[in-house]
Structures are given as structure tokens and as C-alpha cells.
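Ticket #228: bound-state structure for adenosine-5-diphosphoribose.
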Amino acid sequence: LATHTKEVEDASTSAAAAAEKGPECSICLSNCHEESPYQAQKETSRDIVGSVSLSRCGHVFHACCVLQLVSHDATSIVCPNCKTIHGVMTGTQPPGGTMTVQTQSMHLPGYPHSKTIVVSYNFPRGVQDAKHPNPGRPYYLVGFPRVAYLPDTRQGRQVLSLLRKAFDRRLIFTVGTSATTSQPDCVVWNGVHHKTEVTNHGGHGYPDPNYLDNVTMELAALGVTEDS
Ligand code: APR
Ligand code: ZN
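RESOLUTION: The complex was predicted; output attached.
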């Protein structure tokens, strides 16, 4: 028991000492009031001294450590501690794509009183850029135009406007290896789920009472919200 008590005392004393020194930078795991071990590593961060707090969440890091997270053409950074997005997140969706919308009078399972919004995505052929897995090689369009269904309800229309925003920010598709076909260099979905079936044959259709809530959360995780 004596040993245990001693350990607890030691731990609380060192925690108190650390708190007095200042917060820990979770990027380099050293104290913000001490120099970052990365300070001298990069030419770009050599002169950036001291610490900064991110404007939206207030988490504190060494300035030079935050710089390591930012690429030269970044439009946003995500707090390493709490994932709050600062700025506008954009993706690596190929350029020149189209997102078209139609309304049809049919009803989706689960929405017997609503019409249906049909969203159609397509892309011209093209070549991968520096942010894609194989820059310079072409990408392949398998299963395009891709069609997705939403109920024409208040929430369905809300999701449609969020999808439009995400598409404009190049977040709906990316280039990669298709998980379902294992084919590399394809234009693939980027994690925002779409209902590509009316009824549930392959697990991507209706009914699914949680779909609109779930996709709204997936979009929010990318910083796409009504007021963003
Ligand atoms: N419909 C909707 N989403 C799908 C489908 C589908 N048929 N198949 C997979 N997904 C989802 C997966 O759940 C995953 O989250 O897309 C994400 C990426 O999976 P990949 O297989 O890499 O996607 P991708 O190759 O782009 O598309 C698979 O979706 O729309 C259809 O015709 C398309 O057959 C293709 C399939
Ligand atoms: Zn640091």
C-alpha cells in the first residue's frame, strides 16, 4: 500500500508540474513552452517559433508543428485533437464532373407519400493529378453515370443541397482502388453513402429509416453543413 501511495503522489506531482509548464503539443508530444523537436527540421518552419491556438476549438500546438499539417495549397486544417475543421475542406474528385437532378413521381419504400429525387453523377475521362495514387495515368469510369435516389421530402431536399455543396467541394468521389471490384485507378465513392438502388438488393437501397440522418453526419464530418 505504501508503494502504491507513493506512486500516486509522484504521478500527481509530475502532472501538476506539467500543467504549470503549459499544455502538451499533441503533434510532437513535448510541452508547448519548450522548443518543438521539429523546430529545426524543415526550412519552412525554422523561423516560426512559439505556440498557436486554433481559432475554432482553442487547442494549442507549437506553430511549427501545425505547419507540418498544412500543405502549400491547403484550404483547411483539421484539429488533431478534436477534428474540428478550420477553413473549407476540399477533396480530390476529378475535375469537370456533372451532378444533375430530376424528380420522378414514383415512391421509395418507406416514403409512400413522396416523390423521388434522382441524382445523376458523371465525369469526362481524364488523367490523375499529383494528389491521386498514380499521377499521369488515366482514371477509369466504371458504372457511370451513377444514379442515386432521395425521397422528395423536406429532409431529402436538405440532403440534396448538402450533396451539391460537397460535390462542388470535390468531396463525393476520389480516385482509388474500388473496394468491390479491386480494380485500381477508378473513380470511386469517397465515403459519403448514396442509395444507388430503389429497393434493397445489394444493401444500397430503401427502406432505410436512418439513411438521411446518417448521410447528414457523414457530410458534417467533412465540414459540409447547412451554414458552412
Ligand atoms: N452503391 C452505393 N454505394 C456503394 C455501392 C453501391 N452499389 N457499392 C459500394 N458502395 C460504397 C461502399 O459502401 C463504400 O463506402 O462505396 C464506398 C466505396 O466502395 P467501392 O467499392 O470502392 O466503390 P466504387 O467502386 O466507387 O462503387 C461500387 O457502386 O454506384 C455503384 O456502380 C457503382 O458498382 C459500383 C459500386
Ligand atoms: Zn509540437
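RESOLUTION NOTES: The chain has a mean pLDDT of 89.
TICKET STATUS: resolved
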